[in-house]
């Protein structure tokens, strides 16, 4: 049975919000989707009927293995589309999120499998986030926020937690792209802004930015 656009948006929200124990609350979903609680409750009852979640009144939802897979497959379509737009259509990484939001609801599995083949089966999207495979499996990454790094550390920019075009343009202006080697020079005690060094040049990043940048050591 094909999923509806609304169901896919809920599935994607579950993917992003679920904790390490496979749990998420109705309130978290309501805030994330900007949907009223009664509507979320009604949808989660439908998800429970499909065995995607375990739903009990006044308790956190538990996302089942089936639900996790369905959610991952929606995210797969989105991230593959973003990669295709960047690699084959020469879009900037700051311009692809909204287009992928629309194309992710295409139901043809063959379409996305072909896209995957054309791209030579990429493991990550243009923002450094892992692309689930066609079985819904996803690579785990050992990353940390740039804001958690200390002066003197050398790290590699691996991913972002925000695909907003304004934020990605902010990074473009500072020549801070994926796989860039970064040295932390200084962290201001007052506002936690960070001075970094890239290819011998220094840049200052706000704490708001360093919170949304993920790096590997």
Automatic annotation (TrEMBL):
Key word Cytoplasm present: yes
Organism: Chryseobacterium rhizoplanae
A GO CC term attached to the entry: cytoplasm
Subcellular location: Cytoplasm
Record's protein name: Transcriptional regulator MntR
Molecular function, one GO term: DNA binding
PANTHER family in the cross-refs: IRON (METAL) DEPENDENT REPRESSOR, DTXR FAMILY, TRANSCRIPTIONAL REGULATOR MNTR
This protein's UniProt keywords: Activator, Cytoplasm, DNA-binding, Manganese, Repressor, Transcription, Transcription regulation
Family: Belongs to the DtxR/MntR family.
Entry-linked InterPro entries: DtxR_MntR_Metal-Reg, Fe-transptr_FeoA-like, Fe_dep_repressor, Fe_dep_repressor_sf, FeoA_core_dom, HTH_DTXR, Iron_dep_repressor, WH-like_DNA-bd_sf
Assembly: Homodimer.
The HTH dtxR-type domain, residue ranges: 1-64
Major place of residence: cytoplasm
Entry keyword Plastid: no
Function in brief: In the presence of manganese, represses expression of mntH and mntS. Up-regulates expression of mntP.
């Amino acid at each position: 049975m094909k999923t509806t656009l609304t169901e896919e948006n809920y599935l994607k929200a579950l993917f992003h919000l679920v904790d390490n124990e496979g749990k998420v609350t109705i309130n978290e979903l309501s805030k994330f989707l900007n949907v009223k609680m009664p509507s979320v409750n009604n949808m989660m009852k439908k998800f429970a009927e499909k065995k995607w979640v375990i739903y009990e009144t006044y308790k956190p939802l538990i996302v089942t293995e089936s639900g996790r897979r369905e959610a991952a497959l929606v995210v797969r379509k989105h991230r593959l589309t973003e990669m295709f737009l960047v690699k084959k259509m020469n879009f900037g990484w700051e311009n692809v999120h909204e287009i992928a939001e629309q194309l992710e609801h295409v139901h043809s599995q063959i379409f996305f499998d072909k896209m995957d083949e054309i791209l030579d089966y990429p493991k990550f999207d243009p923002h450094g986030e892992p692309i689930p495979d066609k079985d819904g499996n996803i690579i785990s990454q050992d990353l940390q926020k740039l804001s958690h790094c200390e002066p003197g550390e050398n790290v590699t920019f691996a991913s972002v937690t925000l695909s907003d075009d304004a934020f990605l343009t902010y990074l473009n202006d500072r020549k801070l792209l994926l796989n860039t080697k970064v040295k932390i020079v200084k962290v201001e005690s007052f506002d936690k802004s960070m001075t970094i060094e890239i290819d011998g040049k220094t840049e200052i990043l706000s704490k708001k930015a360093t919170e949304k940048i993920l790096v590997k050591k």
